[in-house]
Amino acid sequence: MSTSPASSTLPALYGPKPESYAGDVEPSEAWRILGENESAVLVDVRTRAEWGFVGIPDLNSIGKNVVLQEWQSFPAMERQPDFEAGVIQHLSAANVTKSAPVFFLCRSGVRSQGAAIALSAEGYERCYNLKDGFEGPKDNAGHRGSVAGWKASELPWQQQ
Question: In angstroms, rounded to a whole number, what is the distance separating the alpha carbons of residues 143 and 124?
Answer without folding.
Answer: 35
